[in-house]
Amino acid sequence: MPTDLDTLAREKLSQVLRDHPEPASLDRDEDLVQTYGLTSLNKVLFLTSLCKAAEVGLDNFTEDDLSRMRTLGDVVDALRPHAPQPTAQKG
Amino acid sequence: MTESILNRVIATRPAHDGALTVTGLGHRTTLPLAEFHDRARAVAEALRRRGVGAGDRIGILSANRLEWVLLDVAALMLKAQTAGFEPGKFRPDTELIERYGLDLLFTDAPLTDDAPSRAVPISAVAGYAEEEATEAFEPAEWGAKECTTVKFTSGSTGAPKGLEATAGSIDSSLRAVQSLFDHRPGDDILTFLPLSLLQQRYWLYSALYWGHDLTITTYQSVFAVMSTVRPTVVMGVPAFFDSAKRHLEAGLAAGAEPAAAAAELFGDRIRYLWTGSAPADATTLKFFGEIGLPLFEGYGLNETCIATKNHPGAHREGSVGRALDGKEILIDEEGVVCVRSDHPVNTAYTYAAPGDSEKMFKAGGIVRTGDLGRLDEDGFLYILGRSDDVIVLDNGKKIIVRPVETRFRDTGTVAECVLYCPSQAGLVAVVSPHPGPVDTDAITEALASVNAASEADERITRVIVADEPFSVDNGLLTSQFKPIRKRIADRYRDDIDNPKAGINAH
């Protein structure tokens, strides 16, 4: 079962950013390109590694979907409907 | 007489098992090349019924997709010329159609009600491929000096120059490349750069002729689909391989095994990787060699097509390889690389400012590239810099900026570096940061180390850190990921000229 999707997304984004900032410090509403300087290639690398870790099929998304994912929050929201359901909720 | 590959490709339905795959995020279509040939022929017939014939010109302004290559081969069959326009850089309007004399323009861009009547949605081509043939149709034949297509240079300044490419030059390049790499059934070449670049379509002609597979995707999707495509060859520009390297290095640092990490990104069948179009970092070339994915750099311009290439049989570190068959490298008295071709791409631009053709094309099938280079005793070419990137100081000393720029980039602190000389006070660098927060201290340290390794005249006095990475989207990189020197200067002119701006050397 993957970790919480939001946490996983922060970890994976941190990994593709050059200086690997603290995952918790990443703002889910900041623009991935403008603020974090993600290139198109890095954005798809981020999505690819996140999908793999979150057990979400990449084939759920199109290039148009990718271009609409402007923030970390957009990415998490796009993946969430396709992610495996958690077996237990945090109380 | 040598057979024309292009004429054979358009006239003959493939008898081999090669296949074409067109894929991207969320979609994948694979069809045998024999079936692709049938469909292209049906498209040719449909176009002919709509009045397209020899001598007409078809514009294509679209992202990579199956219809793009169907149109390309159909146009070849009709002896109509194609003009490939890079998406995002052109608009499907009357001005484009009239400027380039287009009889039809196929595009994936939305067409408004007032769009010109000659602009057609490229999606219509899929329907053409399904239409019933109504009369006998024999594909045309191209003469070696006839031009099959217009290509546009992604120049550093002004409007793109238009250059028509001869059938003979295409045949010559295909044959020469094949002699070096022996693409064969079982190979799958992956290409993702825009099909408006003629060389990307070479791999389709190569697949149709030699029977290997071809996969076409897009820049946006390539990293997402590569491992499942399992290509044996990947065609990319240096920036693509730089990104892949950084990704792989992160995995290796986390303990991944090199071969496994490489296979996870590139698939498990890579025979070799191809790069060109811009200078590749020595560290990137070395990295891929060390993880078992040999990366071969070559050299060529739109005006010459591929001129030199390292390959498994002849490879020398730091060089861009030896001349291909049909090409000869000459270094003129000013140290500028000139390329002589048995079958020139052309001898002049079709669309360019007055004087541009004369500057580039010389008598005898020679192109003066403007790049500075040297040949070693075995004929390997080393590119030393662009002649128009030479800064002449008031002491008369010429500085070739590229080695200094490369030195800065190789520190790993910046993605790109472009040097200017706003005054005789010294050189100023505009650097493109890596994604993420800018590490000013690291760049300051890198500046000191670059200056320590440079001659006195090459010393960089200030560094301007660009407020966003150079990219194709923001217009500071060409479609082949080369920094556009003039635009970067225009964007950062105030900072370049302001002696108080940026990071100062100590």
From TrEMBL, chain A:
SUPFAM superfamilies: ACP-like. It comes from Streptomyces anatolicus. This is Acyl carrier protein.
